[in-house]
Amino acid sequence: MKRSFYLKLLLVGLLVLNLLNALAPLLVGSSHALFQWIGTGIYFLLDPACHQQPERSFFIKGLPMALCVRCTFIYLGMAAGLVMIMLKKRLFLPEAVYVSFLIFLILEIGTEAVGLYSNFKILRSISGLVSGILLIIFLITIVPERVFKKGKQ
């Protein structure tokens, strides 16, 4: 099968993941027991993908989304990055971009961990979005090229 099929399949998976993320609090907050059960199942299903700390999450109808802000935007960024890859066949960024952002991300997480700031959701959103975009571009374009290039030598 063609590479584009797998990229589209991955994109659909990421979009479904983000849809489930937003649906979980709506379903749990429903008055119907079956919807509440399904919503609880979504939280359980997404638990391995995120720490799900409510104080680090967006809320819908008074309930936290199934993924924290950073994870939500990482997965949205991955979906956006896939769209960018599909629209532009060859999308390569200099390695310095990846290294620079990795340093920024480590500093952002580290400064929060030591208490220099607390739960700044806009910064978490931006770092998550850019992380997701760069991660998917790196995994889809750079890693295969490096692996196949080494295999041909």
Tell me what the structure shows.
The protein is mostly helical and 153 residues long. The chain has one domain (3-152). Helices cover 72% and strands 3% of the residues. The chain is built from five helices and two strands, in the order ααββααα. It has helices at 3-28, 33-46, 69-87, 95-113, 121-152, and strands at residues 59-60, 63-64. β1 and β2 (63-64) form a beta hairpin. α1 runs antiparallel to α3 (69-87), α3 crosses α5 (121-152) and α4 (95-113) packs antiparallel against α5. The chain is flat and about 55 Å long. The two termini are 26 Å apart. The mean pLDDT is 90.
Describe how the helices and strands are arranged.
Blueprint: H1 3-28, H2 33-46, E1 59-60, E2 63-64, H3 69-87, H4 95-113, H5 121-152
Antiparallel strand pairs: 1-2
Helix pairs in contact: 1-2, 1-3, 3-5, 4-5
